[in-house]
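User: structure tokens for Glycine cleavage system H protein, please.
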Amino acid sequence: MTDLTSLKYTAEHEWVALDGDIATVGITDYAADKLGDIVYVDLPAVGTATTAGAVCGEIESTKSVGELYAPLDGEVVETNADADADPGIVNSEPFGGGWLLKLRVDPAAVDALLDRAAYEALTGSDA
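Assistant: Done. Predicted tokens:
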């Protein structure tokens, strides 16, 4: 089980796990629950530059289409082929196998994101 307090979060419901200068990005369990059954993900190509706060992909569910926002400036170095092949993994393992992309980032930029307590305050949940 991922230690949710070790992650950083955005107000757009993405989570970030930093390992050196590589940030693994996914959507939170809160976002996955609100979207409903995810049926398709459209992720940026490897090598794509991202801008913090800008749309970098889409997540389609049986309820709606949601936008994936880049949590940080960076460059896409990997996307999750498992989520592309089986988008339902984003619902079943939002903090594990359902990650979406990996970005090469400035590690210092991660400090500006929300911690778990601030994210829970934002969503009004303790999930």
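User: Anything notable?

Assistant: Strands lie at 8-9, 14-19, 22-27, 38-42, 49-50, 55-61, 65-69, 74-79, 101-104.
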